[in-house]
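task queued by scheduler; priority normal; single chain, no ligands, no partner chains; default sampling; output format set to structure tokens
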Amino acid sequence: MFTEANKPNIAAMISWLWLAIVTVFLLVGFNFTIIDESVAATPEVLSEPSSNMVAPASGTVATNIPPNEEAVRIPWELGQLSVCPQTYPALGFESNGVQAIFFDSLPWKGKPTRVFAFFGIPAHKEGEKVPGIVLIHGGGGTAFDEWVRYWNARGYAAIAMDTCGSTPHGRHENGGPPGWGGFDQIDQPINSQWTYHAVADVILAHTLLRSFPEVDADRIGLTGISWGGYLTCIVAGVDSRFRFAVPVCGCGFLAYNSAWRSTLLEGNYEKSAKWLNLWDPSRYLPMAKIPFLWVDGTNDHYYPLDSLQKSYRLTRQRTLCTRVYMGHGHQWGPEEIRVFADSILKASPPLPRILGQGTDWVDFDPTTPIVSAELNFTLQTGNWEERKWGTLPATVSRGTHKVTAVIPMRTTAYYFNLINIHGMIVSSELIMSEEGAKH
């Protein structure tokens, strides 16, 4: 029984308890915001960022990530792939100045293979050496002559090879394993599986392109779309001769989230683990030392934003280009790819450069000026493909070189786009709440 003299001061106890809780939160580095739940969650009603939003540390967009020093054993013999392959004319496939060839590749099941490819050299001055680019198609595709012409028109020598033992008219008799993914081939020897051969085909195509006298072997980049973006991630970590890489709608961490997540998680555990250990790009991305431009859309069905983020954070030099609702397919038109390539291989003006970001701001390099910026956000959770996105103008302060925005209430994921005078965009990293990260 408490007496009047020893009765505890309840108000004081509550105050001390509250102070202790706040102190613990400060010590462990948490921030918190009290949100009025009575406010309607519409884009027009704005608030401070939610307490569980996690932003990258300042400078992480532009600062190199320390390399993964752990040696990764790769299954390819790079010396063998550095020898220029024998080529043969592919009669009947020539198209508007683009040449069609077959070139020798690695044996498959004890038989020699050949790879179909288109290549082209742009108009150039006598004695001039031009930059080059290797083009990797995605699922349902093959070598595309128009893709080669697209880059030829921009002053690049280009080669586009088929990675599945086919030509534009279907499979040929000397083709390697069919694509894509090779999940059903995992019990076969490593050198009989699709990814092994597809990566080798790309590296051999690179070796061939470097051999042409019109091409500057020290100025060659790499880009691929979808499964070609997946292969780009692996090749960039294996073939150190490339100067840049641009995966378009392609990344690693396929078991974390991708169109093939259920295939990998619901099948045989040992087989899935073997495939991931051999062929997931996350094994090879830390070895890449070249600049990356990551091009993707907010609602990509095959390579969602969360797996994309895990992938690009493994690369040392990265620029992001994320468009709201960008479609998935063989589209080589985003001009950011050409500007990125030109800035590295032709010393042309670069894309805008992000120096750092926080929960509601982005710092940009004043030497790469921008004219506007936008905040792209979603209030939804779950499947990335099904989320609806909104866009709001952001404030650009040219004096401080900072972009800011007030984040809509109940936002679950968001990022900034910075836009230059030519309409080229670069994106900040995605920021997600705990709920927004669920898929």
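post-processing summary
- The longest strand covers residues 215-225.
- Residues 1-71 have pLDDT under 50 and may be disordered.
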